[in-house]
Structure formats: structure tokens, C-alpha cells
Write a structure and sequence with these properties.
By secondary structure, this protein is mainly beta. It folds into 2 domains: about 5-195, Jelly Rolls (Sandwich), CATH 2.60.120; about 205-410 and about 445-455, Jelly Rolls (Sandwich), CATH 2.60.120. The protein is built from 6 helices and 30 strands. It has helices at about 115-120, 135-145, 290, 300-305, 355-360, 445-480, and strands at about 10-15, 35-40, 45, 50-55, 60-65, 80-85, 90-95, 100-105, 110, 115, 120-125, 130-135, 150-155, 165-170, 185-190, 190-195, 205, 215, 225-230, 250, 265, 295, 310-315, 320-325, 340-345, 350-355, 370-375, 380-390, 405, 405-410. The radius of gyration is 25 Å and the shape is globular. About 45% of the residues are buried.
């Protein structure tokens, strides 16, 4: 649907005047000017994270209450009320020029005599960008196996602008099987706007292009959609625990790991403190909880050389994607250069060789992130984005391993079409269980299918591990002296049993 069709001549306008959040630092680590609207609500209320949501005084649409409160909802605010639109409607929010997070909250329920599952099909535009097109919140939540969905976008409010317009427009198509004159409707439960520094165009990302990475500067007016924000090796981080006052959600990465080769997860040593390095790595880059946990391949070098630690992330085909990798060495003995070096692969392309976190960060406990740009093949529907890590032996590192602390994936809007809109995700044959309701906490369908082959590989790996352990135990029994160092998280030292590719 062209973006122009979302602005029919009967468009209604309103200005929602809201109070700005208190506080703020000069470095942008605490955000001012935040706006939250609990659509359809008549008064202000506070959610489970302590955020205050103002009531909705829209002059169009119908205020409605949800008929059922799903137990997985994190709070009644803003999910239990909605604003329902039979025709296009625009909210106009007072904002300052610069980049903002725009979050849209949807809880598909029955509102009055309207069923969100069958009758809600609509588009959303903001700042001239089509964010959603023919969006069906009910199908989306069924596909993700959750009760509600939050769509997060990063938009750049142009210089001189004083407002951000957000338009909801029901689809012009007639519902299948509907009575003559029946139409789709649009609805929204909550709208959140959080001003941010420019967190995307600097540093300049590396474009992974057939194994020949190159720098790829991004335009300042690029719009982004958050596809994934993962706390790798750690538990989910709720919006209230995010850094910088941005209220981001960080999900556990385990549902997206390919096959049975999960590697190992661990937390930082008690005597390691997380250190940021402003301005290149400000504290708002990611909360400490992201850098304080990690996933690595495991303690056995031979096993690590036989597989890739891989994540599979379904995305919309035909778009560019920015991938942000968060790293931090958090456990001893990894303190020096060339102790751990690895490859980063994206869609089977080499994005980074000799990734040494100590080199990039400057030492143990120091946070760092790096960005890569990838383009998916032009196609309809969804495609899988593959991210993989594997030891790089070219510098003969001390340990054959790889590590990751956090991963974010952002979709870039198509410049010629001014759109971020993708199709509704396909509904899997079986319902997916969830933990927090906001995103899936089990593998998506494509990952489940891929895991079938991974199980077989995992069994072979398990047999090899058992053989190695048995061999090690036998060797120790033959020794009369107890002069060998104990195996730690990263396994024995290279001088003992680590595989060396130059040895015969």
C-alpha cells in the first residue's frame, strides 16, 4: 500500500499535550521529554515498571476496554484500554528535533462488539514513514506465541519540526465473508515516545559483502525497526532495568540458537566490574546486565572446532539490517591479547576475522560493541538471518573459543518507498509457549525445523566429549604427581591438550 493512501482527505488532527519526564544529564544518559499515552484511558496511571501513562483525550475513535485480561500481561496499563478507529486518525505529539524511540502497544482482544482477530487490519505511519501495513495484531501474537506485541521504531525528527504525527488507518479492503458495508478497523493500546541520542549512525557500520567487508555510512534520516534485542547468555531484562532511561526490553537468546549446540553461559567474576568508555561506548549503549553475562562455545577446543555457535533470526525479506554485537570479557583468565580470537559470520558471509574482545575493548570488564550491515535477498514473506561464531586459528590464540554478550537487530527503511512495513508473520502449526508474553521464549518454526538436524550433531558432540573426558581421567590416574593445573571454564592450557592445526 503506498504511503500516500494512508492520508485520506478526511484525516482528523489532534494535538496531545503531555508533561515531560523530570531529570536528565547532559550526556543523554537519562532522557527528558518522554511521552506515554494509555489509549482509551480517562485518567493517568502507572505501569509495573513505574512509568506514568497519561489518559487519552483523542477527539475521534471510540474508547474501549478489553473483554479479558490475559495473565501474561505485565500490567493492566496500557493494555486493558484501547482507542478504536473506524477511519484514519492522527495523533500529533510535541517533540524536539532529533532521534526518538516510538513504541506502539497492541493487545488483541474483543473490544465491545469488535473482534481484533477478524476485524482489525490497519496501517500506521509516522514522520512520513509507513511503519505497518495491513497489520493484524492477532495473527502476529499467535505467530509469536504471546498475548500482546510491542512494535519499536527509531525515527529522526527533522530540524525545525515541532511535532511527530502518528496516523492509524484501517485497511480499505472489505473483510472476507463480511456483510455488505462492513470494514476493518484500527486500534492501539499505548503509544510511547522516548527521545534518544543518535545511537545508530556512529560508529559507521561494516557492510558484510560476500566476504569483503567495507565501511557503510548511514544517512541521518534513516528510520529503524527493532527486530531483536537479546541478552545473550542471560535472562530477560525488563524495561525498568534498562540503562539510560530508554525502557528497552532485552530478551533471552536461547530460543534462537540453532540445534543442540548451545555452548555454555556464565556470569562475570565477582572481582570484575563492568566499565564503559564514553563517548564511544556510553552507559546507555546497553545495561550492565547485558555485559555481565555471556555465552561461549565451551571448554573443549576440539569440540569448538567442529561446530559454529549459531543463532537463527526470522526477519522480513528484501530489507537492509543493522546488527549490533555487544562484547565484554568478564571472566579470568581471559585478560590478554590473543587468548581468544574468532570469526563472526552473518548469512554465511565473513563479517569479522580475528575478533579479539580484549583488543577491541582494551581489557577485561570493558564493554564494547560493533555494528555490521547486511542486505537480505529480495523476496516476499520472511527469511532467516543466520549469525554464527567460530574460533579463528590464524593468530594461534591460547584458547579456541568465541564469546557474545548481547545482540541487536534493526531493520532499515526502504528509502525509495519510505517504508518499514513487512508482512504479518505466518502462524506456526503448534502454539509456542512463552515466558513473559512480549516475545517468544521458544524457537520459531524455522528454528524448530532446523533443530532436527542439530539434535543429531549434538549427540555426536556429546559422545566425543565423553570420550575426551574418559581419556583425560585415564591419563590422570597414570600420573603420580598432581602438578597439572585444574581445568577451568576455558579448559586446559594450550600446552596440554589444545588442538594445534600445525601439529601432525
Amino acid at each position: 500500500m503506498p504511503a500516500s493512501t494512508l492520508f485520506p482527505w478526511l484525516l482528523l488532527l489532534t494535538v496531545v499535550s503531555l508533561a515531560a519526564a523530570d531529570g536528565g544529564d547532559a550526556d543523554g544518559s537519562t532522557v527528558t521529554g518522554q511521552i506515554r499515552v494509555s489509549c482509551g484511558a480517562s485518567a493517568s496511571a502507572t505501569d509495573g515498571d513505574g512509568r506514568t501513562w497519561d489518559g487519552d483525550d483523542a477527539v475521534s475513535g471510540v474508547a474501549a476496554g478489553a473483554s479479558y485480561q490475559d495473565p501474561s500481561l505485565p500490567s493492566t496499563v496500557p493494555y486493558m484500554t484501547a482507542r478504536v478507529f473506524a477511519s484514519s486518525y492522527t495523533y500529533s505529539f510535541p517533540v524536539k528535533p532529533g532521534r526518538v524511540f516510538l513504541r506502539l502497544y497492541f493487545y488483541p482482544s474483543t473490544y465491545g462488539n469488535l473482534s481484533a482477530a477478524a476485524d482489525a487490519l490497519f496501517g500506521v505511519t509516522a514522520g512520513g514513514i509507513a511503519l505497518l501495513r495491513d497489520f493484524n495484531a492477532s495473527q502476529t501474537t499467535l505467530a509469536l506465541g504471546c498475548a500482546y506485541v510491542v512494535r519499536e521504531f527509531s525515527l529522526n525528527v527533522s530540524s525545525g519540526a515541532t511535532s511527530l504525527n502518528v496516523t492509524f488507518a484501517p485497511s480499505s479492503r472489505q473483510p472476507p465473508g463480511g456483510a455488505s458495508g462492513s470494514h476493518y478497523y484500527a486500534f492501539v493500546n499505548g503509544i510511547e515516545i522516548v527521545p534518544t541520542p543518535d545511537v545508530f549512525t556512529a560508529p559507521v557500520p561494516t557492510f558484510a559483502n560476500g566476504g569483503r567487508p567495507s565501511l557503510a555510512p548511514l544517512r541521518g534520516d534513516t528510520a529503524f525497526q527493532t527486530m531483536y534485542r537479546l541478552n545473550v547468555g542471560g535472562t530477560a531484562i525488563t524495561p525498568g532495568a534498562d540503562s539510560g532511561g530508554f525502557y528497552r526490553t532485552w530478551d533471552n537468546d536461547a530460543p534462537y540458537i540453532f540445534g543442540a549446540a548451545f555452548g555454555v553461559t556464565f556470569e562475570k567474576d565477582s572481582n570484575v566490574s563492568i566499565q564503559y568508555n564514553p563517548p564511544s561506548v556510553p552507559p546507555y549503549a546497553a545495561p550492565e546486565g547485558v555485559y555481565a553475562t555471556a555465552r561461549s562455545m565451551g571448554p573443549v577446543a576440539q569440540i569448538n572446532l567442529s561446530y559454529n555457535l549459531t543463532w537463527i533470526l526470522p526477519v522480513d525479506a528484501g530489507f537492509y539490517y543493522l546488527l549490533r554485537f555487544h562484547f565484554c570479557e568478564i571472566q579470568y583468565p581471559i585478560t590478554k591479547v590473543n587468548q581468544r580470537s574468532f570469526f563472526i559470520y552473518i548469512n554465511n558471509q565473513t563479517a569479522q576475522e580475528q575478533m579479539d574482545v580484549i583488543v577491541w575493548s582494551g581489557g577485561i570488564g570493558r564493554a564494547v560493541y560493533t555494528d555490521y550491515l547486511i542486505v537480505t535477498a529480495v523476496d516476499s514473506g520472511q527469511t532467516d538471518l543466520w549469525v554464527a561464531l567460530h574460533p579463528d586459528l590464524s593468530s594461534k590464540p591460547e584458547y579456541y573459543d568465541a564469546i557474545l554478550n548481547g545482540l541487536e537487530v534493526f531493520k532499515l527503511h526502504k528509502y525509495g518507498f519510505n517504508t518499514l512495513a513487512g508482512p504479518n508473520p505466518p502462524i506456526p502449526p503448534k502454539k509456542i509457549n512463552t515466558v513473559d508474553g512480549s516475545r517468544p521464549e521458544s524457537r520459531k518454526k524455522s528454528v524448530v525445523y532446523a533443530a532436527v538436524g542439530g539434535v543429531a550433531a549434538g549427540c555426536l558432540l556429546a559422545v566425543l566429549v565423553a570420550c575426551l573426558f574418559a581419556y583425560a581421567i585415564r591419563g590422570r590416574r597414570r600420573k603420580a604427581e598432581a602438578d597439572q593445573p585444574a581445568d577451568g571454564l576455558f579448559g586446559p592450557t594450550k600446552s596440554s591438550t589444545h588442538f594445534d592445526p600445525v601439529q601432525k
